[in-house]
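Example (one chain per record):
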Amino acid sequence: MIDLFRTFDISASGMYAQRIRMNTIASNLANFESYRITGEPFRKLEPVFEAVENFEEAQKGYIPVYVREIRESQEPFRIVFDPTNPRADAEGFVRYPNVELVKEMADMISAMRSYEANLNAFKTTREMAQRTLELWR
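Predicted structure:
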């Protein structure tokens, strides 16, 4: 029965990680055309996941995921030639945030599917625990 509780922990850690991923995607979409106070374009945020494992727990399949950090992307900014834009440099180029709408939407769908998979694993584990308890009656 203890292993069932560990399964809940694993599924919950996966759901938490995907929720953080959805939050960063939402921030990226909200700041698609935003600039910092310094005038620099917004940099896309990326969550970094980490599988925390030790040998004994890994042998049992117990490897939860943790969000190690949320970092700024180092991808280059989008550069567009628009000399009429007030943010244009001396050569007429404007730097825009490095957020790609299509990629963010694809990442959002992926995060939703991963969250749903973890939720289904959580529900299935709960059903197994309930049936086990019914057998003990």
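Caption: The CA atoms of residues 33 and 97 lie 6 Å apart.
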